[in-house]
Predict the 3D structure of the following.
Amino acid sequence: MKQFFKYVLATITGLVLLFFIFFIVIAGMISSSSKKETVKLEKNSVLHVKLNYQINDRPQDDPFDIFTATLTGDMVRPVGLYDIVTSIEEAKSDENIKGIFLDVSMLGAGYGKLSEIRTALEDFKTSGKFIYAYSEVLYNQSYYFASVADSIFLNPSGTMLFNGMAADVTFMKETLSKMGIEMQVVKRGKFKGAVEPFILDKLSPENRKQISEYVESIYGDILSKISKSRNISVDDLRMMANEVKVKTSDDAVTNNFVDQLAYRDQVMAMMKSAAGTESDDELELITLSKYNSIVHPFGKSKSGDKIAVIYADGSIVSGKGQANEIGSDKFAKALRKAREDEDVKAVVLRINSGGGSALASDVIWRETKLMKGVKPLIVSMGDVAASGGYYIACLGDSVLSMPNTITGSIGVFGLYPNAEELYGKMGLHTEVVKTSDVADFGRIDRALNEKEISILDAMIGQIYEQFLNRVGTGRSLDRAHLDTIAEGRVWTGTYAKNIGLVDEFGGLKEAIEIAAFKAGMEDYKVTSFPKADNPFEAIFGEMGMTSIKNKWMKEELGTYYPIYNKLQRLKNLSGIQMIMPIEVEVN
C-alpha cells in the first residue's frame, strides 16, 4: 500500500508540474505575441491579401491558434473585416504600395463579407495600381472574388469549375425518428421553415420558393459583377455554367475567365516588373496583418470622440452566452455602456446572425430603443441578419446591407421534442404528481396535448404580433405592407431595400462613415464592444474549454460536423425562437 501511494503521489506531482510548465509556456507565448513588432514598409511594396482563415468582423485571436502558429513558425495574425477594408483603402493612396496580390486558393468568408472586400478592391483600382490574383484552385466563391483583379493567373496543373450555384439543406426527421424522437412545432409564418429539417424529409413549397429566389438573387449579383470585370455578358456566363464550359485550366483561359496559366514564381516575377522592382531584387510582399499594424487609419486620431462598433455575431441566446453567441446580458450591457459613455458620440451595431431566442432578442432590442434619440444608431448587416437578427436591427436610424446579405425572416416558432418512444426503448418510466392538467407542460417524455398546444399557440401569436409591431414602428411600415413581407420570409439585401427593410447598400466602413456624419464628427476613433476576454480567460475559462472541444469535434467529424452542430443547437434551444427559415449551405 505504501508503494501504491508513492506512485500516486509521484503521478500527481508530475501532472501538477506538467500543468505548471504548460501554463508558463502559454503565458510566454501570449506575452510575446502581444508585443508589437516593428514593421518597416519598403518602397515598391505589394500588399499580400491572403484570406485563408475564418474572417470575422472583428479579429478574434484564438490562443490555441497562437499556440499552433508558434509551433509552425507562422505568427501571421488574422485580420478582421473592418481592418481589411481600411487597409486596402489606405494602400490606395500609399506611395510605397504599388499593387495588391490576391492569394485566393482558399477563402474563409461568406458572400456578404467578400462583397465588402471586393468593393474596396474595386475602389483601389481607380488609383491605377495593379491587382494580380493567383490560385491553384478556382471555384464559384473564389472566382467571384478573384474576378476583380486586372490579371488572373491559375496554376497550370490547377483546376477551375464554373457550374452555377446551389443551396444544400440537410433534413434530420428520419434520424430523429430512428432515435425515438418526434419534434412538435407551433409557428407563425408559412415561410418560417427553421423547423423543417426536424419535421420534414424535403423542402415545403414555400421554402423551396424563397430559397430559389434568394439563391437566384445572390447568383445574379455575382454574375453581374463578374460580367463587368471580365467583359463577358451575363447571358454567356449563365450558358457556360449550364453547359459546364469551364472545367479545366485550359477551359478557363479559352473562355476568358483566366488571363494566363502560370506557376507562383512566374507570377512573382511579373509582379516584380509591375511594381518596379529590379529582377535581381526580392519582391517586397507585406501581409495584411503587418500593413494594418502600420496604418491603423482611425487609430491615429488624437480626438477623444469615439464611434462604438458593437459586434453581434452568432446565435442569440439568453445570459452571457458562449463564444460565437450573442448573449443578451453581454450585448445589452455593451449597448448600455456605449450609450452612457460620454466619449462615444455614435454607435454602429454590426450584425451577423440568423436569430435565436425571442426573449433574448427583445432584451437586446430594448437597449436599442433606449439608444434612440440619445445617439445615432447605425445598423450594418454582414452575411446574414435575419429573424432575431433583424429584430435587433429594426430600430436603426439607418440600416445598411450588401445586395447579397440574407435578411428578413419575420416569424416565430416553438419547438418541443417528444422522446416518449426513446424513453420506452431505454426502459425509462416517469411518474408525475401535479396540481393541474398542464402543470407538467414541456415534459419531453410525452407528446403535447391539445390544451398545451393551444397555450403554446397563444404565446407564439403574441410574440409574432410583437415582432410585427417592433418592425412596423422601427421601419415606419404600415401593417398591410408588413403582412405581405413577413410570414417568416427571407430576402436578400437587393429585395430588402426595395420593400423597406433596408435603407441602402454598404458595408461596415460605410456604416461607420454614416455614424460619423450623423454625429457631426470628422476626427474620431473607432472602439469595439463587447470587450474581448483576457487571454487567460480565453484559454482556461469556459469559452476556452468550448474552443478545445469544438476544434476536436471538427477534426474527428470532418464533413459531418455541421450535422453535429445543428443537433447541439437543437439541444440548447429553449423557449420561443426567432431563427431564419433554414440554415443552408450556398455553394
Remarks:
- The chain has a mean pLDDT of 84.
- The CA atoms of residues 352 and 382 lie 5 Å apart.
- The domain at 306-586 is CATH 3.90.226.10 (2-enoyl-CoA Hydratase; Chain A, domain 1).
- The two ends are 63 Å apart (CA to CA).
